Amino acid sequence: MALTKSIGKLSEILSEEPGINLGYCKDHARCNEAFCEMCKYMICPSCLMFGSHQGHKVLDPAKAAQVIRERIAKTQQLGKLAPEYSERFLLDIRDAKIKLAKTQTVAKDQVQESFKSIINTLKRRKEEIEDAVYTHFTDEIEAVDKEEIQWIEKQNLGKKLLEFSNSPDDEMLLNNSFTIMSAIDVLNESSRVKSASLINSVDLTSNIEGKEVGFAQIVRICDSIGKFGEIKNIQYRN
Ligand SMILES: [Zn+2]
Ligand SMILES: [Zn+2]
Question: Residue ranges of the B box-type domain (predicted)?
Fold first, then answer.
């Protein structure tokens, strides 16, 4: 049975390697005594007999040390322990990092610039339309105000003429004849129909190259602006 075989080995190990401090097993509060080859881990006898390493192949510490040294040496022979080995990959990776950072800045700037232009255009257009609405209503109200003043004057002329006619004083009537006749002319002017134009709504349709684009459509267009353009993959060795 694998377990008894392993335990047998473990007792051999114990007699062979006194004195080496292999650390302490936190799970079993015992000293570690063997190397679990499967888990690459120093373990205590309880780990092997009852713990999570049951049935795992173990090595005695001296053998384990030898195996580990051999593995290091092999890796060294392949040149993989020299800093220059990692350096080649690091150069590639760092180059990729720089390219990523640069491209991020370009993309960020592009988004900022493009949206600034849309936002500024909308702001300007809003102000233009607001100005147009303001100017229109100011002009219309001014025109109506003028008419009001004229009719207040006519009302006063009417009152004055009544006063003249109610007075028996012919002398005063004759001395004011020009004023009186002019007032009568003014009051007899035929009335004209004036109109004021009201803007009940603002049409926010846009005409683009002869094509009508509704406001809801414009909003929809704004709502879906922007996606990733060309995506370029850069490779780095790993
Ligand atoms: Zn243990
Ligand atoms: Zn194990």
Answer: 20-61
Q: What is the ipTM of this complex?
A: 0.94
Ligand 2 center to 186 CA (angstroms): 117
* Closest ligand to the CA of 37: 2
136 and 215 together in one domain: yes
Closest by CA position to 17, among listed 2, 37, 35: 35
Nearest ligand atom owner, CA of 32: 1
Ligand 1 centroid – CA 72 distance (Å): 27
Residue at token pair 């207040």: 152
Query: What is the spatial distance between Cα 103 and Cα 117, in angstroms, rounded to a whole number?
Result: 21
Backbone angles phi, psi at 66, to 5 degrees: -65, -45
Give a yes or no: residue 234 inside a domain: no
Say how many Å lie between the CA of residue 56 and the centre of ligand 2.
Answer: 5
pLDDT digits (tens, 9 = 90+) for 31-67: 999 999 999 999 999 999 999 999 999 999 999 999 9
Tell me the residue range of the domain where 13 lies: 2-77
Instruction: Say how many domains are in the chain.
Output: 2
Question: Each residue of 197-212: pLDDT tens digit?
Answer: 998 898 999 998 999 9
Decide if 238 is inside a domain.
no
